[in-house]
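Structure (tokenized):
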């Protein structure tokens, strides 16, 4: 008997992010099929797994994940992130997240993990050091074409939304000093000299989403 592919919804505020993940998964559509890019509206299709990309969203210690877990259309929820702090993994499990997946996974390993989650496992999957440079070239994020790393772009995204360094650090679960380092790198790469210029540049180049999807979902659900 031919097994049906696992159905997946991809969740993030930025179309370039979810389309990049969809492109990674496309060669495996006989096993994992993306049926929804959940950008503005709550998930409308019944899906086996909702994959929550944390880019520009904050990690699982925020309340955002509870909104997604409350969706009646997502059988299971997985988080897609760089941050593998033990505290965040424990928080994700305690809140009922069934998958905690690293963005350093190859496309093959990401598909394997999604299938296991859909089958009922609780999966925490990072990538070994030697595999971290493979399988992610099709994943996109704002500013990638300009040389910004995903983390630098994420810091700029949050700064463009008006967050200060301490708030960005809290949202991303990193130190303030790490945020400052990313900010310096961003300034150099986009050729600006201060925060006001960086924020203006970010607004002009699409780093401020028109909405925060999960905020809209809360309004819809209540």
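Design, position by position:
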């Amino acid at each position: 008997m031919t097994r049906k592919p696992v159905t997946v919804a991809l969740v993030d505020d930025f179309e370039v992010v979810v389309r990049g993940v969809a492109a990674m998964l496309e060669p495996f559509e006989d096993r994992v099929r993306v049926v929804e890019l959940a950008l503005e509206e709550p998930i409308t299709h019944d899906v086996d797994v909702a994959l929550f990309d944390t880019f520009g969203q904050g990690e699982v210690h925020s309340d955002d994940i509870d909104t997604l877990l409350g969706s009646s259309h997502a059988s299971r929820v997985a988080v897609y992130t760089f941050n593998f702090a033990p505290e965040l993994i424990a928080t994700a499990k305690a809140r009922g997240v069934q998958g905690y997946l690293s963005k350093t996974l190859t496309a093959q390993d990401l598909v394997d993990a999604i299938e296991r989650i859909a089958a009922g496992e609780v999966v925490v999957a990072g990538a070994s050091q030697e595999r971290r440079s493979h399988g992610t070239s099709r994943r996109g994020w704002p500013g990638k074409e300009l040389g910004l790393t995903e983390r630098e772009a994420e810091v700029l995204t949050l700064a463009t939304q008006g967050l200060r360094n301490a708030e960005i650090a809290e949202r991303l679960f990193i130190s303030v000093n790490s945020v400052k380092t990313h900010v310096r790198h961003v300034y150099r790469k986009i050729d600006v000299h201060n925060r006001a210029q960086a924020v203006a540049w970010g607004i002009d180049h699409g780093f401020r989403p028109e909405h925060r999807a999960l905020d809209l979902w809360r309004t819809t659900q209540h």
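Reviewer-requested clarification: The CA atoms of residues 83 and 165 lie 18 Å apart. Residues 129-136 have pLDDT under 50 and may be disordered.
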